[in-house]
Amino acid sequence: MASEEQVKNSAFDTEAANCLVKELRATVITGKTKSYEWRVSQLKSLLKMIEERDKQICDALFSDLSKPEMEAFIHEIALVKNSCKVSLKKLKEWMKPEKVKTTLGTFPSSAEIVPEPLGVVLVISAWNYPFLLSVDPVIGAIAAGNAVVLKPSEIAPAMSSLLKKLLEEYLDDSAVKVVEGGVSETSALLEQKWDKIFYTGNGRVGRVVMAAAAKNLTPVVLELGGKSPVVVDSNVDLTVTARRIIGGKWACNNGQACVAPDYIITTKQFAPLLIDSIKHELLKFYGEDPLNSPDISRVVNSDHFARLSKLLDDDKVSGKIVHGGQTDKSSLKIAPTIVLDVPEDSLIMNEEIFGPLLLVVTVEKIEDGIDFINSRSKPLAAYIFTNKKELKEEFVSKISSGAIVVNDISLHLMVDTLPFGGVGESGTGAYHGKFSFDAFTHKKAVLHRSFLGDAPARYPPYTAGKLRLLKALLDGSILGIIRALFGWS
Amino acid sequence: MGSIVDNFEDELQELREAFDSGKTRELSWRRSQLQAILSLIKERESDIFKALNQDLGKHHVEAYRDEIGTVAKSAKYALGNLKKWTASKRAKLPLAAFPSTAKLVNEPLGVVLIISSWNFPFGLSFEPIIGAIAAGNTIILKPSELAPACSSVLTKIIHDYLDNSAIKVIEGGPSVGEKLLRHKFDKIFFTGGGRVGQIVMTAAAKNLTPVTLELGGKCPAVVDLISSSWDRKIAMKRIIWGKFGACAGQACIGIDYILTQKKFAPILVEMLKKYIMKSFGDNPMKSNSVAKIINKKHFSRLKGLLDEPLVKSSIVFGGSSNEENLFIEPTILLDPPLDSAIMTEEIFGPLLPIITLERIEDSVEFIRARPKPLAVYGFTNNEKLQKRMIRETSSGSITFNDAIIQYAVDTLPFGGVGGSGFGRYHGKYSFENFSHQKAVMMRGYLIDFGFRYPPWNNKKLQLLKSGLRYDYIKLVFIKLGLKSKA
Hints:
The complex is a heterodimer. Chain A is an alpha/beta fold. In chain A, 45% of the residues lie in helices and 17% in strands. Chain A is globular. Chain B is an alpha/beta fold. Chain B is built from 19 helices and 18 strands. Chains A and B meet through helix 4, strand 2, helix 8, helix 9 and helix 10 of A and helix 4, strand 2, helix 8, helix 9 and helix 16 of B. Strand 16 of chain A pairs parallel with strand 18 of chain B.
């Protein structure tokens, strides 16, 4: 006999999604989620949840991704904790209306911009940082005073069910809900009318999400990906550069990160030196047998394993492997692999790798790297290692990407004062810190006018004199206004 | 002359090349274009007035006040602030990120598409164009075919004054719009109705193109019992302007309907009648102060709203119309049924329903129960009511004791929420709308914390825990081996 729980879970269809949204709307109407106290209580609860359950969180990450405890801590737990703390500290400030100046044209008046919640929002997260990419946007939604439904990725099932359990236990379940499932559950959710949809994932599904949002004129934030390039100049500290590249690539979920280096661009002359240095540091980091190192995540599942293996097996690519290339299907592990100068038309040069394969593309002059990058879709992040000021400046001004980091990788993720988001194919919208609050907020313009000052020039019947006065008013010049008033111009 | 089967490939190509050349990023280019807008406003004022009068019957003072003067103001504002907006901003970094620096750099998006509407064809074309230019983009403008004289004057003056390789106008109706939407733009800015807004966003989704939708809704005006006769006079003038004076009610932020207290309603109706006659005379049609309805289709639509029997019987003033001149006189209705079309659809015309409530505070509930409009208005000096309206209703904007004028305030964001749209512009928000704010972070090589990297061990974990807590003293101690636990 199926338990009530099972029966409830087995049919999350459009009707169920509809009921869910109705329930949340009813909560929002009461005004509960708008109060400062409610938001603070939820954020504090989240903090408590992380502190009390950090081991369970690490275990789930290990189960889904074989993620080493250190990575789980630095990249997911610590970042989420920081996000909570920053929101708690700054919430009062963020919630305050912003007074703005008004001009002579509307004198006397006062104006301000008042932040208000959007209402009921949907957060769809990804599998690679399943804790961070679920809870961080939820923090933003709560801080902004919304009710929220989280749909975690089914590709990280341990975290998905842990999130359902923990969020329901620690947070107000009349306003925060978790819906688990795959394509059909997500579709049922996407059919509903939301006040905002926040999606993290790939461009293909991003298009589906935006098209569904269009039916209800729902605004979206799309955190997508792309091929993040790393330009490496020759006058750099080789060891530190190699370490930072490895730290941003294989030490970040084994390259399965939206801002992980996808390919390196360097000069033909410098490439061998760079590759050697990376090999050298890789040995230090992961030892002789990286395939079995406990300090590196695995490939998430057999589908992605097959996808990555296929990229390597390609005739044009397999001969270009200069390091690694070993795979172990049973443990879903692929060793850190470097591939040098594959043909332009190979699959690996055109799809986001999202795995432990690092391409090296060589050019004649390092400046050619800029054109190479610009001929492709705008990535989520672009990196450059150089000490040359002009090259730095050229890179920053000519490359369009979500973000640019000079002489390091991915660091901008950890900074809550920088907006994190894409442009073009890598997405739209941004979050982190105050940007998270803003992403889930409507900034309402409020204008207070007095009955005292009134410009009769505005109203019919219309005359030439009124036209003169209007011109002066809109111009904002006191002299012009006086002249017009006295009929002098 | 374009070919009959024009897919605008050539135009798009030219704009992309112009953008890639980098010329639109130069501040000098942006300034020259903004200056050119100021020139064309000054020099072609009469052509613009003529077109607006032809398409919409607008009086030239109305045209100046609502569309031309505001565009001049916005262009000047952009010129004056261009340097500030385009400068990169330093971002504060937490101690743990030392020694790095970070800044936010604004960059143009690329080739943008601006689709404007027929009711303020100049204003709603140039305001977004100003933002797109200030941000350094190349532009296609598709004006509304429903205002054909304005559409062709726009084409001509933009051709004569602005850089043709970077800013183009493509005229036409739905089929032209559809062809344009098949191309990949870096941003689409749409002003119009929700139905077409949906079509635009759906097309944009295919290319992951971000959009701004400036839509509409039913903008309510809560009119409280105003005791002071001076205040009442001003309020009446502003209400009448906010309803009938701006494009005869065909304005997205025009007052759609009034909410007032039952006992104030008769006084309100009388005052409105008085001031309508003062503003427009005995024969509003001949006054040239009320715009005409844009076309027969909308004329019939509006007449149809009045034809419902219970609606017709609620008319207390006006109601007459002249199909040949596409003129509908300022009309007031008292308590038409709440489920009638006039109370459920956006009116977009000179018909003003007044809905009466027991208490004025009930207006908050009334507004809350309906889709979020682009603007909410409150004519009241009651601070408590004002506060409740701000806190308990949601709309693009909320204005007290006036209407429509929020459009002219450069420091306030202009845009909708919910059914009234998303995205915002005016002033610096126009600039931001067409920009990508890129985070740029720079690190040095000098200090590198070895505990950032694998292989992992407990000691490194402790160091990281301290580091992330900004506990540098502890960090130093652990490093020196003086402390064993974090």
